[in-house]
Amino acid sequence: MGRREEAAWAQGTVGLTAARERGDIDRKFQSRLTVTRSMIDRLGLEKELHGHTGCVNCLEWNRDGSVLASASDDLHVILWDPYRYKQLHNMSTGHTGNIFSVKFLSPEILATCAADGSVRARSISGTSLLECSCHCGRVKRLAVAPDRPHLLWSAGEDGLVLQHDLRSPHRCNADSANVLVNLLNHLGRYAEAKCVAVNPRRPYQLAVGANDFYVRLYDTRMIKLSRLQETQITGPSSGLMWERQNVRCSRAGYGDPDNNIPRNAVTYFAPGHLSIGPNEPTFPKKATTYVAFSNDGNELLVNLGSEQVYLFDVNSARRPVLVESFIIQHNRGHRDDKRNGTRDAGAGGSAAPGSNGTVDPQPVLPDRVRHLKEMANDLVNSSNYSAAVELYNSAIAACPDCALLYSNRAAALMRRGWSGDTYAAIRDCYRAIKLDSNHVKSHFRLAKGLMDLKRAREARECLLYFKDKFPKHAASHAVFLLQKDIATALQNTDMQPDEAEEEGGSGSLLERQLRGSALDYSHRFLGHCNTTTDIKEANFLGPDANFIAAGSDDGSMFIWCRRSGNIVRCLRGDESIVNCVQLHPSQFLLATSGIEAVVRLWSPRPEDGLQESRVVGEAGAAAAANQQRMRSDPFESMLLNISFAGGADRDMHSPACRAT
Predict the structure, then answer these.
(1) Model confidence, pTM
(2) Would 653 be classed as within a structural domain?
(3) Close Cβ partners of 436 (under 8 Å, ≥ 6 residues apart)
């Protein structure tokens, strides 16, 4: 039986399917090949679905994938048959503002939310089940639990996450205890909830993204629902804004009045280079545009505006560390010995944890990996750092226990200088040191990277450890220059007045504590651009989440290999911006949408030798342009978007339905 499985696997998807029909393997094993690299390499446009008259802001498959729902700025929801490419229903929702999210509560019940501040649920036949106007701002995202068709969560730009229960009648007044999370109480008066997602395996876990770079994971079992502070004001939008600024913000930044959210009921996640940065507003402004759980519920994928796509381990993430404890302990002992005059001048430094004073032999690189390393080294020498990083990524994916590969990638990252690269290089240095505690270059690059992050005190600690551990290199010119830079930076820091409370340090005590204990990412995926719209998604592809997909401001859909982090496919998905990327529940059928009033279906195309016309040939160049775009001034970014998506042939006026 085992040999049969291996033979079918070796034959690819076709052979595996044939083996399943013979009864050699089960469907669960076959489902693992829903999305494979060979299928991604053949991914192309299957069909365009026309029917909307405005931007298509959200897509949702029903549970078995027999129906695709799309919702648009035209205030309609269309239900599609994805196999016959025809409309099943075209539903007028009753919303008066752009629809931002649509969800199936059951095969017959749909929920929507919109810019008019309302959440609605109705049956396909037209029966209204919920009309909630408790939000006083745009409602950006809905979330549902797989086995709880009566529950619905909404995230609004009024800073509230509301819980709706369809089993009980609802009235929008002060007696409605439906507030699950009030971000205003902790973040301040300008807090906005941007996105929300439910863990499919542990439905009590709710992830919330806001208009900052922190993702909050709540345990709803420990949270008690609260009421709105005052009765909803019914009237024009000016009245809603008055309520937000004067009524609901009356306790902004002072915490929950009834301690609705205990400290151990929420965990914060954030990219380490952002959470350890100075406590001040960032530019460009960061906002979480989408959060999604993996199928097993153990990982959280986050699309961060003006930044990258990040993957967090829900169960075993750790806090960002700039100086590991073994360095601090060694330096403390070094200072004590020097003070007491007992230090042996010939003694070397202590080894990193796990080495026990010895160094594990480094693995012999296979020929293919060695060839990748040599090509990457040549690219670094020719200053093509992005291409070098891609090759190092591939080499590390094939041989993850080689310290040299991590150290070399760290050097390439520090020279490339994309957002978060220096911090990623520091992580690589620590990984290399863990594998080989005597790797000289990794220790020195660690100190250099910290200095590049303007962390002079941490750089001094690491350089002291380096000089003590490698006395032969302590007098080198590179060490002398770095030590001089550190001394100058420390002198300038000491001359500046201390500021106990900076502008970015506002918020409740609980908020400051949780930000200080935020957990770091495990992987990141670079190449797309996410600055123009705040509804841009990122999703796992396949049951084992071996690939990641996201839309981009340049009109492309990017697909990354989860293991290496490299871009494996880039397709033109919209003439302006791709916002939505949703995978069919059981097949490799992708649905995308964006600024155009079109829904596109993508699938592996026949192996007939024809080139897919929508492939972006130079994905690396597109990624580099997007990184520049995300660091640009907003007006300059608009010009870059125009030039990248069509140049002189494109209409210079922005689409009327472009989200902002």
Answers:
(1) 0.90
(2) no
(3) 359, 360, 362, 403, 404, 442
